[in-house]
Design goal:
- The protein is α+β, with helices and mostly antiparallel strands and about 250 residues long.
- It has two domains: about 55 residues; about 170 residues, Beta Barrel (Porin), CATH 2.40.160.110.
- The protein is about 25% helix and about 40% strand.
- The strands form two sheets. Strands 1, 2, 3, 10, 11, 12 and 13 form a seven-stranded mixed sheet that branches.
- Strand 1 and strand 2 form a beta hairpin.
- Helix 1 runs antiparallel to helix 2.
- Keywords: Cell membrane, Disulfide bond, Endosome, Glycoprotein, Lysosome, Membrane, Signal, Transmembrane, Transmembrane helix.
- It comes from Mastacembelus armatus.
- It is found in: Cell membrane; Cytolytic granule membrane; Late endosome membrane; Lysosome membrane.
């Protein structure tokens, strides 16, 4: 019996660190929140999860050359004119009030979203490496002018988000944060985008983001660890039982 207890202790000592490591890995894989300048006023009320919209760009021959489906949320720090303070606001893009346009070239593709009577313009630029056949989101610009707010204008040409392979779409169901500037970041929800290699008006097979893969990996690791624990305990019980029977044999 003491041997069985020692075996159980060793099993727990092996399995518990595996479960703990899996949970810690999930925590570290979460996209870090954007760095935002300190505010002197209470942030505006959270507008909730944005509605998912579908956007497309067509080539000169009228066929789709870029497809995107996602919910978009803008995190903006700005100067409030009436309050004369720096505040933080969260704005959801409404697909039914958003127009899409853009362009497609051999190694670059852009998606421009325009809302609020052309007062807000959000542009995504994707770049394709023709040697490795890999693409990524390389550039984001935002120009916005809302009532009672200072105009916002940012442009970042050195981004590296949404990395995918030519001929495949990029998918990320989990919420992602794209840090564009110190005062602007973008949250994406249920994202799927394909800026290159479209063969029709539908997405090709998807490559999932690391966040989605981690969500699938954690249950597998925990389940395998628990299954291993059950097997080891069962073997220890059978071995202990066999030895106990052997001790009562008649000489």
């Amino acid at each position: 019996m003491k041997q069985i207890i020692r075996v159980h202790s060793r099993c727990l000592g092996v399995v518990l660190p595996l479960i703990l490591a899996a949970i810690l890995h999930q925590g570290f894989a979460t996209v870090a929140p954007p760095t935002i300048a300190p505010t002197t006023a209470v942030p505006h009320k959270d507008p909730g999860r944005p509605e998912r919209g579908t956007y497309s760009v067509t080539s000169q021959n009228g066929t789709a050359c870029l497809l995107a489906s996602m919910g978009l949320q803008l995190n903006i720090t700005f100067k409030s004119v009436p309050q004369n303070k720096t505040v933080q606001d969260v704005v959801n893009l409404q697909p039914n009030l958003t127009k899409s346009s853009g362009s497609c070239e051999s190694d670059t593709a852009s998606l421009q979203l325009t809302t609020d009577a052309d007062k807000t313009i959000l542009t995504f630029v994707f770049t394709l490496n023709t040697t490795s056949h890999k693409y990524h989101l390389s550039e984001v610009s935002l120009s916005a002018s809302w009532p009672d707010k200072e105009p916002v204008s940012v442009h970042n040409r050195s981004l590296n988000y949404m990395r995918g392979t030519l001929g495949y779409s990029y998918m990320c169901h989990k919420e992602q944060t794209l840090n564009v500037a110190q005062n602007v970041s973008i949250n994406t929800f249920q994202l799927q985008v394909q800026p290159f290699g479209l063969t029709g008006d539908k997405f090709a097979a998807a490559e999932e983001c690391q966040l989605d893969e981690d969500d699938m990996l954690i249950p597998i690791i925990v389940g395998a660890a628990l299954a291993g624990l059950v097997i080891i305990v069962l073997l220890a019980y059978l071995i202990g039982r066999k030895r106990s029977h052997a001790g009562y044999q008649t000489i």
